[in-house]
Protein backbone atom coordinates (compact mmCIF):
# COMPACT_ATOMS: atom_id res chain seq x y z
CA UNK A 1 0.00 0.00 0.00
CA UNK A 2 2.78 2.36 0.86
CA UNK A 3 4.43 1.58 -2.49
CA UNK A 4 1.32 2.40 -4.42
CA UNK A 5 0.91 5.72 -2.55
CA UNK A 6 4.50 6.76 -3.36
CA UNK A 7 4.08 5.77 -7.02
CA UNK A 8 0.78 7.64 -7.21
CA UNK A 9 2.27 10.82 -5.64
CA UNK A 10 5.39 10.79 -7.80
CA UNK A 11 3.45 9.99 -10.96
CA UNK A 12 0.81 12.69 -10.31
CA UNK A 13 1.42 15.54 -12.78
CA UNK A 14 -1.88 17.39 -12.52
CA UNK A 15 -1.30 21.16 -12.00
CA UNK A 16 2.40 20.99 -12.81
CA UNK A 17 1.96 22.69 -16.18
CA UNK A 18 0.14 25.59 -14.50
CA UNK A 19 2.94 26.06 -11.96
CA UNK A 20 5.67 25.93 -14.61
CA UNK A 21 3.72 28.36 -16.83
CA UNK A 22 3.27 30.76 -13.93
CA UNK A 23 6.97 30.62 -13.01
CA UNK A 24 7.99 31.21 -16.63
CA UNK A 25 5.62 34.18 -16.84
CA UNK A 26 7.07 35.71 -13.65
CA UNK A 27 10.65 35.29 -14.91
CA UNK A 28 9.82 36.86 -18.29
CA UNK A 29 8.00 39.76 -16.60
CA UNK A 30 10.95 40.50 -14.32
CA UNK A 31 13.32 40.34 -17.30
CA UNK A 32 11.08 42.76 -19.23
CA UNK A 33 10.95 45.24 -16.34
CA UNK A 34 14.74 45.10 -15.98
CA UNK A 35 15.20 45.66 -19.73
CA UNK A 36 12.87 48.69 -19.68
CA UNK A 37 14.67 50.18 -16.67
CA UNK A 38 18.08 49.74 -18.30
CA UNK A 39 16.77 51.25 -21.53
CA UNK A 40 15.40 54.31 -19.68
CA UNK A 41 18.71 54.80 -17.86
CA UNK A 42 20.69 54.56 -21.09
CA UNK A 43 18.36 57.08 -22.77
CA UNK A 44 18.93 59.50 -19.89
CA UNK A 45 22.69 59.08 -20.14
CA UNK A 46 22.64 59.77 -23.88
CA UNK A 47 20.44 62.83 -23.37
CA UNK A 48 22.81 64.21 -20.70
CA UNK A 49 25.84 63.61 -22.93
CA UNK A 50 24.10 65.44 -25.76
CA UNK A 51 23.31 68.43 -23.53
CA UNK A 52 26.92 68.51 -22.26
CA UNK A 53 28.24 68.39 -25.83
CA UNK A 54 25.93 71.21 -26.93
CA UNK A 55 27.05 73.32 -23.94
CA UNK A 56 30.70 72.68 -24.80
CA UNK A 57 30.21 73.56 -28.46
CA UNK A 58 28.36 76.76 -27.54
CA UNK A 59 31.17 77.87 -25.23
CA UNK A 60 33.82 76.89 -27.76
CA UNK A 61 32.05 78.74 -30.57
CA UNK A 62 31.90 81.84 -28.35
CA UNK A 63 35.63 81.52 -27.72
CA UNK A 64 36.38 81.07 -31.43
CA UNK A 65 34.14 84.03 -32.29
CA UNK A 66 36.12 86.21 -29.86
CA UNK A 67 39.40 85.01 -31.40
CA UNK A 68 38.31 85.71 -34.96
CA UNK A 69 36.50 88.98 -34.25
CA UNK A 70 39.07 90.37 -31.84
CA UNK A 71 38.39 93.91 -33.06
CA UNK A 72 35.03 93.72 -31.25
CA UNK A 73 36.75 93.57 -27.85
CA UNK A 74 40.35 94.62 -28.48
CA UNK A 75 39.53 98.25 -29.21
CA UNK A 76 41.03 101.54 -28.04
CA UNK A 77 38.70 101.83 -25.02
CA UNK A 78 39.68 98.37 -23.76
CA UNK A 79 43.38 98.97 -24.41
CA UNK A 80 43.32 102.34 -22.64
CA UNK A 81 41.46 100.90 -19.64
CA UNK A 82 43.79 97.91 -19.56
CA UNK A 83 46.78 100.21 -19.14
CA UNK A 84 45.20 101.98 -16.16
CA UNK A 85 43.28 99.19 -14.41
CA UNK A 86 45.01 95.95 -13.47
CA UNK A 87 41.93 93.75 -13.87
CA UNK A 88 40.03 95.42 -16.68
CA UNK A 89 37.60 93.14 -18.44
CA UNK A 90 35.36 93.26 -21.48
CA UNK A 91 32.21 91.17 -21.69
CA UNK A 92 30.39 90.33 -24.89
CA UNK A 93 27.76 87.83 -25.99
CA UNK A 94 28.46 85.53 -28.94
CA UNK A 95 25.41 84.87 -31.11
CA UNK A 96 24.54 82.37 -33.82
CA UNK A 97 23.47 83.35 -37.34
CA UNK A 98 19.90 83.94 -36.15
CA UNK A 99 20.90 86.27 -33.30
CA UNK A 100 20.37 83.70 -30.55
CA UNK A 101 22.91 83.97 -27.70
CA UNK A 102 25.39 81.09 -27.59
CA UNK A 103 27.92 82.12 -24.97
CA UNK A 104 29.14 84.98 -22.83
CA UNK A 105 32.76 85.85 -23.46
CA UNK A 106 34.99 87.76 -21.07
CA UNK A 107 38.31 89.19 -22.23
CA UNK A 108 40.91 90.56 -19.88
CA UNK A 109 44.61 91.16 -19.58
CA UNK A 110 46.65 88.35 -18.14
CA UNK A 111 48.39 89.89 -15.15
CA UNK A 112 49.86 88.23 -12.14
CA UNK A 113 49.16 89.68 -8.72
CA UNK A 114 51.71 90.04 -5.93
CA UNK A 115 51.53 86.35 -5.01
CA UNK A 116 52.46 85.28 -8.54
CA UNK A 117 49.02 83.83 -9.24
CA UNK A 118 46.52 85.12 -11.75
CA UNK A 119 43.49 86.80 -10.19
CA UNK A 120 40.44 84.56 -10.82
CA UNK A 121 37.73 85.89 -13.12
CA UNK A 122 34.78 84.12 -11.53
CA UNK A 123 33.92 83.53 -7.89
CA UNK A 124 35.12 80.13 -6.69
CA UNK A 125 36.45 79.20 -10.13
CA UNK A 126 40.19 78.88 -10.57
CA UNK A 127 41.67 80.75 -13.48
CA UNK A 128 43.91 78.33 -15.33
CA UNK A 129 45.86 80.97 -17.24
CA UNK A 130 49.57 80.88 -16.38
CA UNK A 131 50.97 83.75 -14.31
CA UNK A 132 53.05 85.89 -16.64
CA UNK A 133 53.54 89.53 -17.48
CA UNK A 134 50.87 91.16 -19.61
CA UNK A 135 53.41 92.90 -21.86
CA UNK A 136 56.40 90.93 -23.08
CA UNK A 137 58.44 89.91 -26.07
CA UNK A 138 56.74 88.42 -29.11
CA UNK A 139 56.67 84.62 -29.04
CA UNK A 140 59.68 82.83 -30.47
CA UNK A 141 59.32 81.97 -34.12
CA UNK A 142 56.55 84.53 -34.67
CA UNK A 143 58.75 86.56 -37.05
CA UNK A 144 58.39 89.79 -35.08
CA UNK A 145 61.53 91.75 -34.14
CA UNK A 146 62.18 92.13 -30.41
CA UNK A 147 63.46 95.61 -31.12
CA UNK A 148 60.30 97.03 -32.70
CA UNK A 149 57.44 94.89 -31.38
CA UNK A 150 55.92 93.73 -28.09
CA UNK A 151 53.17 91.25 -27.37
CA UNK A 152 50.31 91.66 -24.95
CA UNK A 153 48.64 88.62 -23.43
CA UNK A 154 44.91 88.26 -22.87
CA UNK A 155 42.65 85.68 -21.35
CA UNK A 156 39.40 84.77 -23.12
CA UNK A 157 36.82 82.94 -21.04
CA UNK A 158 33.60 81.73 -22.70
CA UNK A 159 30.64 80.49 -20.69
CA UNK A 160 27.89 78.51 -22.44
CA UNK A 161 24.36 79.89 -22.51
CA UNK A 162 23.31 77.50 -19.73
CA UNK A 163 26.32 78.45 -17.60
CA UNK A 164 27.34 74.81 -17.17
CA UNK A 165 30.48 74.90 -19.32
CA UNK A 166 33.42 77.29 -19.19
CA UNK A 167 36.16 77.23 -21.84
CA UNK A 168 39.26 79.35 -21.51
CA UNK A 169 42.16 80.26 -23.79
CA UNK A 170 45.13 82.55 -23.70
CA UNK A 171 45.71 84.75 -26.74
CA UNK A 172 48.34 87.32 -27.64
CA UNK A 173 48.46 90.28 -29.97
CA UNK A 174 51.59 91.98 -31.27
CA UNK A 175 51.87 95.78 -31.17
CA UNK A 176 54.50 98.25 -32.34
CA UNK A 177 56.64 99.53 -29.47
CA UNK A 178 56.64 103.02 -30.91
Describe the structure.
Keywords: Membrane, Transmembrane, Transmembrane helix. It comes from Desulfosarcina widdelii. The chain crosses the membrane at residues 15-38. This is Type 4 fimbrial biogenesis protein PilX N-terminal domain-containing protein. The protein is α+β, with helices and mostly antiparallel strands. It has one domain (52-176). Helices cover 40% and strands 23% of the residues. Strands 1, 2, 3, 4 and 5 form a five-stranded antiparallel sheet that branches. The radius of gyration is 33 Å and the shape is rod-shaped. The model has no long low-confidence stretch (mean pLDDT 80).
List the topology elements.
Elements: H1 2-11, H2 16-68, H3 76-84, E1 89-95, E2 101-109, E3 135-136, E4 149-160, E5 166-176
Antiparallel strand pairs: 1-2, 2-4, 3-4, 4-5
Mean of pLDDT: 80
Q: Rounded to an integer, what's the Rg over CA atoms?
A: 33 Å
Succession of helices and strands = HHHEEEEE
Which residues form runs of ≥5 with pLDDT under 50? Answer: none
Q: Into which percentage range does the β-strand content fall? A: 15-25%
- The tally of strands reads 5
Compute the number of helices: 3
Write down the overall geometry: rod-shaped
Largest sheet: 5 strands, antiparallel
CA-CA gap between termini: 122 Å
Number of domains: 1
Structural class, from secondary structure content?
Answer: alpha+beta
Helix content percent band: 40-55%
Oligomeric organization of the protein chains: single chain
Transmembrane segments: 15-38
Keywords: Membrane, Transmembrane, Transmembrane helix
Protein name: Type 4 fimbrial biogenesis protein PilX N-terminal domain-containing protein
Organism: Desulfosarcina widdelii
Amino acid sequence: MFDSLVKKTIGNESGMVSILSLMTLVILTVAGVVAITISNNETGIVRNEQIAAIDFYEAESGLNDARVNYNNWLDNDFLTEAQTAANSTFDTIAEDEHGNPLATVRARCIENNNSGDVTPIFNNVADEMPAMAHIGNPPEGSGYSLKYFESRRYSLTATSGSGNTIVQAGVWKVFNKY
